[in-house]
Amino acid sequence: MQKIINSSIRESRSFTNDIKQSTNFSNKSNSVDYNCIKVLSLGLDSIATLSNGLKVVLSESLTHVKSFADKVKIVEKLIINDNVMNNEDFINELLREAIQRDITIKNITINFIISTEGRMEPNCISINQRLYQKIIRIIGINHKSLKRVVLKFNCDGKILIERNGNTTNLVYEYESSFGVFSKLIYPVFKAFKAGNSKAFTNFFLTLNISKKESLHLQRIFQALLEAKQRLYLSTLTITSPNAVDVVFITNFIKDSLSTITSYKNLNTLTFNFPQFNGSLENITLSLKSNVLPNCSKIINASKHNIIFV
What we know:
Layout (H helix, E strand, L loop, with lengths): L3 E3 L16 E2 H4 L7 E7 L4 E4 L4 E3 L7 H7 L2 E7 L7 H13 L3 E2 L1 E6 L1 E2 L7 E2 L4 H13 L6 E6 L3 E8 L2 E7 L4 H15 L9 E6 L5 H12 L10 E5 L6 H14 L8 E5 L7 H5 L13 E4 L3 E4 L1
Parallel strand pairs: 1-2, 1-5, 3-6, 6-7, 6-8, 8-11, 13-14, 14-15, 15-16
Antiparallel strand pairs: 3-4, 4-5, 9-10, 11-12, 12-13, 16-18, 17-18
Helix pairs in contact: 3-4, 4-5, 5-6, 6-7
């Protein structure tokens, strides 16, 4: 069982599972190395997992926030749980301290609860703008060191964006409304700055949705890549993992081509439809008037792939 260090304010609180009362945070913190945090999970119970596997239950006392933040240099993974509003003031203060310090964060996961109860437009009920704006600032500040951001919706839909050198990978598996996209997803894409580098040349997009594909494509590309950044992109791969309908695939390709028509340096464009069992060659017959000026030749239309060069 991993050792747990609890802060003094929680000594009277009952913990279950692996979280058990142990050493007092304020008394023993100097003997513990907080330089590298493997996982910092923020919510009703905020827990830091250290590089040696030791777990520390953070105090809700605001007096302990600065002393904790002063010791931290690297956070491998930051998790924002869907119950952060139950501990809002403490987490707000912790995020504020993280913004002011040179703390390197490499991965961020944000859990949302989206509700439509009593309203037409889906609404996020798990976090407010006060906390979310600080998270967006952290993403922006850390955009050079940040490797991955994951957005999880109602423990089901997911959006993952990650980068590795000159390559950005986006897995989009959530059919977001315009309101949710503009309030929650768009700010993350802009702060992540996926294409804000001349080294950015490859983009892999997996779009796993069943409808409104054109709207999602337009929103994604406009949010991720500003006009100047689009000039860097030379290789684009778009995958629709569950597409099996000819009409859907045809419209999907046409929407994609019209969305990226201004990408002047794009020289390879690949569409993947791994579940499609029909003939992609028949689909390509309707694409001749829609191809890109600098990426206009179809060199392959196999069972699952269409490649433009």
